[in-house]
Design goal:
Layout lengths: L1 E8 L6 E3 L5 E8 L8 E7 L7 E8 L6 E2 L10 E11 L2 E2 L6 E5 L11 E5 L13 E8 L4 E11 L1 E6 L2 E2 L3 E2 L11 E7 L8 E9 L1 H4 L16 E10 L4 E5 L5 E3 L3 E5 L3 E5 L9 E5 L6 E3 L5 E7 L3 E4 L5 E17 L6 E7 L1 E2 L5 E2 L9 E5 L6 E3 L6 E9 L10 E8 L5 E5 L2 H17 E2 L1 E2 L12 H14 L3 H14 L18 E2 L7 E2 L8 H13 L3 H18 L33 H22 L3 H22 L11 H9 L5 H17 L14 H7 L3 H8 L7 H6 L34 H9 L2 E5 L4 E4 L9 E8 L2 E10 L2 E8 L4 E6 L5 H11 L4 E2 L9 E5 L2 E8 L9
Parallel strand pairs: 2-9, 16-24, 22-31, 41-45
Antiparallel strand pairs: 1-3, 3-6, 4-5, 4-7, 7-8, 7-9, 10-23, 11-17, 11-20, 12-16, 12-18, 13-14, 13-17, 15-25, 18-19, 21-22, 25-34, 26-27, 27-32, 27-33, 27-34, 28-31, 28-33, 29-30, 35-42, 36-37, 38-39, 40-41, 42-43, 43-44, 44-48, 45-47, 46-47
Helix pairs in contact: 3-5, 3-14, 4-5, 4-6, 5-6, 6-7, 7-8, 9-10, 9-11, 11-12
Length: about 900
C-alpha cells in the first residue's frame, strides 16, 4: 500500500482568499512498508477538479515532499485551482493520485477593489470604559438567479463581525487581526453560498475599536493607528449563467442601532438588551487607502474548546465567585434572566488571595468586566463580541440566588494553530508543568505572541516570543503565526535597523524601563534578536526557506545596527539594556539581574551573527556568509578578551553569564570544562536552585546537559520548592507565572504592579523536556532527519512524546522495568532518524538482535560515550528492548 495524504497549500487545507503568487505544496506519504523514501513526485494543477483543463504538470526526480512552489502560468484573482499529487518510491512503485485539493486566490490588485471604507457618524462613547461604542450597519439585496458561488471579502479599521441573514459569517473572531495597520491590513474571505436566500438577503456588519483605536498598553494609549473605525466589504456573486454581481460597502448601507454600548479589549463589554431608541447614525464614506490590504496570513482566532466550571464559591468576604478550574483566555458564555434594567456583572481575575477572596489588583487598569443589562423578556444566553479576558475566577453580581454551574461555560479562544505535540511522563508534576506550558501558549497566542493576556498590556514583547519559539513549535504548528508577526517586526524596525521591544510597535521607543527611569529604551539584546532567532526556529522546525528569504533583509539590518554601536564593532557595550530581566540575583527592588548587561548583549550579538551566517549559506549568499563568519570569529575573540580572564574565569560570576557563554559557544575550548564546573558550583551555592531570569532560564538545562551535567539539570527540573518550575505546580498553577514567586511561600503576592499568572516565558523549559527526556531533536531542517536520544533519570519510569511534523507523526516512547529498557519509535515516511540508545549493558548482542529484526539498519557509532551506541533507521515503526545498565543511570 502506498498513498499520498494530507495535502497542504501554504500549510493550509483548501484555503480560499490567498494572495501568494507562488503558493507551496506539501504532502505526507502513507505506506505499509518501512524505510520509505520518495524518489519522484508529480503535481498537476487544473482549473477543474476532473483535471480536464490542466495548467501545470510538474514531474520531478526529487526527495522533496514539503514546500514545493507552484511554477506554472500566472495566477488570477478569485480563481479556484485544483491540485493532486502522486509519488514514486522506486522506479516501478508509484502511488495512485492523491485526493484532490484546491486553493482559491483572493483579490490581487488594488484596482479590483470596488468597495469603499464606510463608517457610521454620530455613535456614542462609553462613560464607564471611555471607549467609543461599536457601530452597526447593513445592506439588503435580492438574488433572482441561481447562484454558483458567493464569496465575501471583508476587513475593518477595528474588529468586525459579519452576519448574513442574522447568521454569523465564518467562525473567526477579532478579525482582521492585529497588524501594524499602517503597513498591512488583512482581509478575510468567506464562502457564503450556503447562507444566501433565494429572494431577500441582509448583510450586516458590527465594528468595534479593537487594537486599531482601543486602549493598548499600560500607558492608556488610544488611537494607535487612527481614531475612526470603518468596515470594508466586497461580495462577489457568481451565477450559474456565467454572470457576476458585486455588492460593496458604500454610502447605500444603512446605519443600525447597536446593543453593544462598549467593547474594549482590556476593559470588557457592556451590552444593553433593551430596545435602543434614537437615530442610529448616518453611514458615510471614509477616504482611506486600500494599498495596505493583504490576504489573511495566519490562522485566525477561533473558539478552540469549551470548559465547564468546577465550583461556585462563597468567599470569606461574601462574594459569589465562579471557579473555572483553569486559568484560561476567552470569555464566559452564560444563561440567565432578569427584570428589565437588571444589571448582571462578571468581573474576571486569575487567582484568589491567601484568604480565599477574589483578587484582581494585578490586572492594574484592565477592568476585565462584562455588564449585561436585561430586557425582562425571559431567559437568554450571552457571550461577548470584541473583548477577551484572562482569568480563572469570575466574580458575579446581580445574578439571582438560583444560578447554577451549568448556566456558565468557559469559551477558550486562541489562534487556530494545529496542536502538534504531546508529552507525558510517569511524573504527575512534570505532566502538570507541560499542561501549564501549553495553556500559557493558548492564552498568549491570540493573533500575536503576547506577554500576558489579562492586564493592561497584552503586547507582543519580542524576547518572550524569541525564547519560547522552539517550545511553541513543539506544541503547535507556529509557521504561519510567526511568519505573519515577523512581517510586522520588519515593518516596525527603525531607520537604523534596531528592533522594537514590542511588535506591533505601539510604544514607538517611548518606554522608560531602566531602574532610574532616566533613559528611554527602544531596543535591547535578546529582545531585538527575535529578528534572527524566530525565523531561524521556524526554518528548523518546518524546513521552509521562504521565511528566511522574506526576513533576510530584516535580520541583516538588525545585526548591522548592533555592529554600529559603540567604539568597538565586535562588542555591544553601549546604551541601556534589559539584561537578565527578572533574575533572582537582582538588587532589592530592581527587576534587572546581576549579569553584566554588555556581556549578555555581546553574547546575543555573537549568537545572532552565527545564525545569520548559516542562513546566508543556506540561501547561497556566499559573500555574506564569508563576511558574517569572519564577524562572528572576531566577536568571539573580543568576548573572550573582555569577559574571560587569563585563568579562564568569567568576569561576571552569575549563573546566567556562565549559561550563555557555554550555550552560545563563546568560550575557548580549554576553558569550557572549568566554566561548566563553575556553573554547577554556582547552582549548588543556591541549594541546587536557579536564580536566572528571562535570558538565563531558557538555556540553563541545555548548558548543563550539553556539558555532561544532565543530573544537575534534572535536579533543577524536579525541585519542588522556591525557586523552581514545579514550585508553581505545587502552588496550584494551571499556567506559567511571570515571576518565580508570583505567590510567595507565605501566600502573599510578589507584587501588584507586574505579576501575571499567565506568562509563558519560563515555559521555555518545554523544548528541553522534549529534547532530553524523550530525546527528540532536529538533525536536518523540518525533521527530514531526526535525532532520537532519550536520557532517562531514576526519577522517571517512562516518558513519551509525539510530534506531527510536516512529514507525518514522529513518536518516541520509552519505559524502564527493573533492568529492562524499551524504546518504541515511529519515524515518518520520507525521513530518517538516528537512534541513540542509552546505557546498553550488552551492545554487541543487541546489535545482532537489531540487525536480524531490522536488516535495513545502519550502525554509525556516532556517539563516543561508553555503552551508548547509535544507528540510523528509515521510516516505519520500531521497538527496541534490552538490558539496561542501572548503575550508570542519572541519579537525581
Amino acid at each position: 500500500m502506498l498513498a499520498v495524504t494530507n495535502l497542504k497549500c501554504n500549510y493550509q487545507t483548501n484555503p480560499i482568499g490567498i494572495d501568494d503568487l507562488r503558493p507551496c505544496f506539501s504532502w505526507q506519504i502513507k505506506s505499509s512498508e518501512s524505510a520509505v523514501l520518495q524518489q519522484q513526485y508529480q503535481i498537476q494543477v487544473a482549473f477543474d477538479e476532473n483535471f480536464n483543463d490542466i495548467i501545470w504538470n510538474n514531474r520531478s526526480f526529487s526527495v522533496d515532499s514539503v514546500h514545493i512552489p507552484y511554477d506554472g502560468p500566472n495566477l488570477k484573482s478569485r480563481q479556484r485551482y485544483y491540485y493532486r499529487v502522486k509519488v514514486w518510491i522506486s522506479e516501478h512503485h508509484e502511488s495512485p493520485w492523491s485526493q484532490v485539493g484546491f486553493w482559491e486566490m483572493g483579490i490581487l490588485t488594488e484596482t479590483e477593489w470596488k468597495a469603499e471604507w464606510i463608517t457610521v457618524k454620530g455613535r456614542g462613547t462609553s462613560a464607564e470604559f471611555g471607549s467609543r461604542s461599536p457601530f452597526s450597519c447593513s445592506k439588503e439585496f435580492k438574488i433572482e438567479k441561481k447562484i454558483k458561488k458567493a464569496i465575501v471579502y471583508a476587513t475593518s479599521l477595528g474588529v468586525y463581525e459579519l452576519k448574513l441573514n442574522n447568521i454569523k459569517v465564518g467562525t473567526d473572531y477579532f478579525t482582521p487581526g492585529w497588524t501594524d495597520y499602517n503597513h498591512q491590513i488583512q482581509y478575510q474571505a468567506y464562502d457564503i453560498t450556503s447562507l444566501l436566500q433565494s429572494d431577500s438577503n441582509k448583510l450586516s456588519a458590527t465594528v468595534g475599536e479593537g487594537w486599531y483605536s482601543g486602549y493598548l498598553g499600560w500607558q492608556k494609549r488610544k488611537d494607535s493607528y487612527g481614531n475612526i473605525n470603518a468596515i470594508f466589504v466586497q461580495v462577489h456573486l457568481d451565477y450559474t449563467d456565467g454572470q457576476e454581481e458585486i455588492i460593496i460597502s458604500d454610502s447605500s448601507w444603512i446605519g443600525e442601532n447597536c446593543n453593544i454600548i462598549a467593547s474594549d479589549l482590556y476593559n470588557g463589554e457592556i451590552y444593553d438588551a433593551r430596545e435602543i431608541e434614537g437615530n442610529p447614525g448616518k453611514v458615510i464614506v471614509l477616504n482611506h487607502s486600500k494599498k495596505e490590504l493583504v490576504a489573511q496570513q495566519n490562522e485566525p482566532v477561533r473558539i478552540m474548546e469549551e470548559i465547564a466550571p468546577i465550583a461556585l464559591l462563597k468567599t470569606p468576604s461574601g462574594e459569589t465567585v465562579l471557579d473555572m478550574g483553569q486559568n484560561m483566555v476567552g470569555w464566559v458564555r452564560f444563561k440567565a434572566n432578569g427584570d428589565e434594567g437588571r444589571k448582571l456583572t462578571l468581573v474576571h481575575g486569575e487567582v484568589l488571595d491567601q484568604y480565599g477572596n477574589f483578587y484582581r489588583e494585578n490586572l492594574r487598569n484592565a477592568a476585565q468586566k462584562i455588564i449585561y443589562i436585561c430586557n425582562g423578556e425571559g431567559e437568554f444566553e450571552y457571550e461577548p463580541h470584541f473583548t477577551f479576558q484572562g482569568f480563572r475566577y469570575v466574580k458575579l453580581t446581580g445574578f439571582t440566588e438560583d444560578i447554577k454551574l451549568s448556566d456558565f461555560k468557559g469559551i477558550v479562544l486562541h489562534s487556530a494553530m494545529e496542536e502538534t505535540g504531546a508529552f507525558s511522563t510517569s511524573d504527575a508534576h512534570l505532566n502538570q508543568l507541560q499542561h501549564n506550558i501549553l495553556w500559557g501558549q493558548k492564552g498568549n497566542f491570540v493573533d500575536v505572541p503576547t506577554d500576558c493576556p489579562q492586564r493592561d498590556e497584552r503586547l507582543g514583547w519580542t524576547a518572550d516570543a524569541q525564547i519560547f519559539a522552539r517550545t511553541a513549535s513543539f506544541n503547535m504548528n507556529t509557521a504561519l503565526f510567526f511568519s505573519k508577526w515577523l512581517k510586522d517586526l520588519a515593518f516596525n524596525q527603525y531607520a537604523d535597523g534596531s528592533v522594537p521591544l514590542v511588535v506591533p510597535d505601539i510604544v514607538k521607543g517611548q518606554i522608560f524601563i531602566t531602574d532610574t527611569n532616566e533613559e528611554i529604551l527602544k531596543t535591547a539584546a535578546a529582545w531585538g534578536d527575535a529578528a534572527v532567532i524566530n525565523p531561524w526556529t521556524v526554518y528548523l522546525c518546518y524546513g521552509d526557506k521562504k521565511i528566511l528569504e522574506e526576513q533576510y533583509t530584516s535580520m541583516k539590518r538588525w545585526i548591522n545596527y548592533i555592529r554600529s554601536q559603540g567604539e568597538n564593532e565586535y562588542l555591544w557595550d553601549s546604551g541601556a539594556q534589559l539584561g537578565d530581566w527578572l533574575a533572582l540575583d537582582n538588587k532589592p527592588g530592581s527587576k534587572f539581574g546581576a549579569t553584566d548587561e554588555s556581556l549578555i548583549a555581546t553574547a546575543y550579538y555573537a549568537h545572532s551573527v552565527k545564525i545569520f551566517s548559516e542562513i546566508a549559506k543556506i540561501l547561497y549568499k556566499f559573500d555574506d556568509y564569508k563576511t558574517y563568519c569572519e564577524l562572528h570569529k572576531n566577536i568571539k575573540i573580543a568576548y573572550g578578551e573582555k569577559f574571560i580572564d587569563k585563568e579562564g574565569d568569567l568576569t561576571c560570576q552569575t549563573q546566567t553569564a556562565h549559561i550563555i557563554s557555554l550555550h552560545f559557544d563563546l568560550l575557548p575550548e580549554q576553558f569550557k570544562r572549568d566554566v561548566a564546573k563553575k556553573l554547577v558550583t554556582l547552582i549548588k551555592m543556591k541549594g541546587v536552585h536557579l536564580d536566572t531570569g528571562f535570558v538565563g532560564t531558557p538555556y540553563i538545562c541545555h548548558a548543563l546537559a550539553e556539558n555532561g551535567y544532565i543530573e544537575v539539570a534534572y535536579a533543577l527540573l524536579f525541585q519542588l520548592d522556591y525557586p523552581s518550575w514545579l514550585y508553581q505546580v505545587e502552588n496550584g498553577a494551571t499556567t506559567m507565572w511571570e515571576h518565580w514567586d508570583g505567590i510567595k511561600e507565605d501566600g502573599s503576592f510578589w507584587d501588584t504592579e507586574m505579576n501575571s499568572f499567565n506568562h509563558y516565558a519560563y515555559g521555555s523549559i518545554g523544548d528541553w523536556m522534549y529534547q532530553y527526556i524523550t530525546g527528540i531533536d532536529i538533525l536536518e531542517a523540518g525533521y527530514k532527519k531526526t535525532k532520537i536520544a532519550p536520557q532517562p533519570t531514576k526519577r522517571l519510569n517512562n516518558a513519551k512524546a509525539s510530534l506531527m511534523t510536516m512529514y507525518g507523526v514522529l513518536s518516541v516512547s520509552w519505559e524502564k522495568n527493573s533492568n529492562q529498557f524499551s524504546l518504541d519509535v515511529i519515524v515518518p515516511h520520507n525521513t530518517t532518524a538516528i537512534i541513540y540508545l542509552p546505557l546498553v549493558k550488552n551492545p554487541i548482542s543487541l546489535q545482532e538482535e537489531i540487525i536480524q529484526k531490522y536488516p535495513t539498519t545502519r550502525f554509525n557509532y556516532l556517539d563516543t560515550r561508553p555503552e551508548v551506541f547509535s544507528f540510523e533507521i528509515g521510516s516505519g515503526e520500531y521497538g527496541f528492548k534490552y538490558e539496561y545498565n542501572l548503575k550508570k543511570e542519572s541519579n537525581v
